[in-house]
Amino acid sequence: MSVEYETDYEVGQDNVTIMGMDLHNPVFFISALLIVAFVVGTLIFPDIAQQSLNGAKDWAIEYFDWLFMVSANIFVLFCLALIVLPVGKIRLGGADAKPEFSTLSWFAMLFAAGMGIGLMFWSVAEPVGYFTDWAGSPLNVAANTPEAKDLALGAVMYHWGLHPWAIYGVVALSLAFFAYNKDMPLTMRSAFYPILGERCWGWAGHLIDTLAVLATIFGLATSLGLGARQAAGGLHFLFGTPNELNVQIAIVVGVTAVATMSVVRGLDGGVKLLSNLNMGLAVLLLLFVMVTGPTLLIFTSMGQTAADYAANILPLSNWFGREDTDFLHGWTVFYWAWWISWSPFVGMFIARVSRGRTVREFLTAVLLVPTVITIIWMATFGGTGLDQVANGVGELAGGITDESLALFQMLAELPLTAITSLLAIILVLVFFVTSSDSGSLVIDSITAGGKLDAPVPQRVFWAVMEGLIAGALLYGGGKQALSALQAGAVTTGLPFTIVLLVMCVSLYKGLSAERKLLKQQGLSGA
Predict the structure, then answer these.
(1) Mind listing the domains of the chain with CATH numbers?
(2) Is the pLDDT of residue 196 over 50?
(3) Is the CB of residue 176 less than 8 Å from the CB of residue 511?
(4) Which of 160, 338, 348, 513 is the most buried (most CB within 10 A)?
(5) What is the mean pLDDT of residues 266-276?
(6) What is the mean pLDDT of residues 432-458?
(7) Is the pLDDT of residue 316 over 90?
(8) Side-chain half-sphere of 14: how many Cα atoms within 13 Å?
(9) E strand or H helix at 422, and its extent?
(10) Reduced to 3 states, what is the DSSP secondary structure of residue 16?
């Protein structure tokens, strides 16, 4: 006899209405209280906040680096297994479900939400940093050598390839399956129904959703803070404006205002439009660098980057006996924590736009398409930056002095610098807006008990909260703003790692039960 996961719980049944807002009790109130307390405390006691954040980050990395490494590997293997297992034929939304968005728009939305700002910020700085041993060298390879150059792009792909997208894929597939196939609320707790049963609507579920909100908003704030720093760096590079904290916070305020307007317009009117604009601008900049940069080297770098990624994925995935602890802790563990903290946001957003796809189609696209695009992107921007360093060309030849300027320093050695740098700043800002409004819609759904059409004031509240946290982390971090941003992501990512591991078990139980049910009914997907 197969197991059917059915519940009488109705979306929003625990909600309360206050001032025209439809709020889940108690997830909204606990989350909002903790976030407001953090923002106020950081603004009043910035030094204490900085010490506390860095202390929490150092503790999490020292004692739980193994957990981040093991978990990330498990997520990749789990997703690959689901692709080849019979459950891969199950269609999200039922056998007759049709996709709501074209394949191109679907790719654009999931990619822009998942990686945008980070790829702009790190595509030049990270490989050049590895090559020159700016802040840790992968596998202790000697800096400024041919081996370091090859490993630089391979290590970058390790951080931006299959592992992050497997993390997103686990969350997105779990949410989509239980929402579309089992008619449960589109919240994190629904994914735990096979394990918790009706208890997932009680305090166990409240805890899961609250952790999801906190992880999401701090993961978003990290990206928004990075975006503000890079935009400020670009403005300083182009126009000589001060690259200082007040400018970065002003950018956060301005972009948050634009994101708020986009959030009010909703998924089709705001996020979809901006995501497509993002991809158009990104492709334009990518093609320009390909044509005006070292074109032949860029194209050969694509194959070399893929080969170096494949050759080094196992050594980089190992955490035993590693001597490159600066790289392991400062880069890899931070990235895994950052992706995990982003996963509720990106996962739920991908779930919302993925009805009608089969499990196999969904995971294949989510894992492979962004990885291929990232290889092309990194080989183009990172490969051009590495070529300039290796040949002693431009400011990058002196190494990384300010990671937020690396992209612009690379573009300075290509034609039409002013135009391309301005385009890069606009692209950063549009990615910034896309991430903020997408995140607001997702957090709003969680704190509205799974409702997808919550009142506009709730969306506005969360868009403003994201901007406040990004500003608070920048302010609390001061000159060490990057460290503060990383600390926020690592600290919130740690507890959520456990949540995702349990989610894998719950998802497999749900998919297995669904396949048995479909087999009994003689439907496709069995």
Answers:
(1) 15-312+326-521 (1.20.1740)
(2) yes
(3) no
(4) 348
(5) 63
(6) 83
(7) yes
(8) 20
(9) helix 417-446
(10) strand
